[in-house]
Amino acid sequence: MNKPRIIGVLCAGVFSFITLPSQAALISVLGGQAYYDDQLDITWAQDANINGLMDWNTANAWAAGLTIAGVGGWRLPNMDKNDDDTIVNCSSGTQAACADNEYGHLFHYGAGTTLGGGVTSASPGPFSNVQSDGYWSSTVYAPEPLDAWGFDFSDGFQSNLNKIERFYGWAVQSGNAGVVPVPAAVWLFGSGLLGLIGVARRKKA
Q1: Is the residue at 101 inside a domain?
Q2: Would you say residue 98 lies in a domain?
Q3: What digits encode the pLDDT tens for the residues 153-179?
Q4: Which domain CATH number covers 102?
């Protein structure tokens, strides 16, 4: 086997570690234990009720300590991603505005672009155990710090809830949890191989 062929094989091995995102509505990742939402660029746990009823502080701690298929870094959904203290009602307005509210977008749009095509307790799509009750978000209710925003997956109602009450938690992760980060050493190795290819080509010329 000549040098260019060896380098090509090695490069293919290095870059096979890199998983490029697909374009779809809800993409199964982590062996079906989670779904990547390519509209919001977040990953939802497939099981919408992993830990049962919790108060707000417990729900946040639970999500932060959760691992699914060996992957950590989970959190509760954010209902005010731009931190402007305005909670968008996704039943009206544009999809672009709705993207500020992760629960609202999932309920009203799913991972698509059509209003009314979302995930509810009656129509859960690929998810299991979607409760017809309130879910905690990570978003504090600005006028009253003792409250946080919650979302009901039976009817889409969103309201402030006292943090000591007990509701459900749905774990999400920013980005695609199914994409394995490429270690820095692998990137350096790949860069070195590309450099060798350049040297080989110059010598050949």
Answers
A1: yes
A2: yes
A3: 999 999 999 999 999 999 999 999 999
A4: 3.10.100
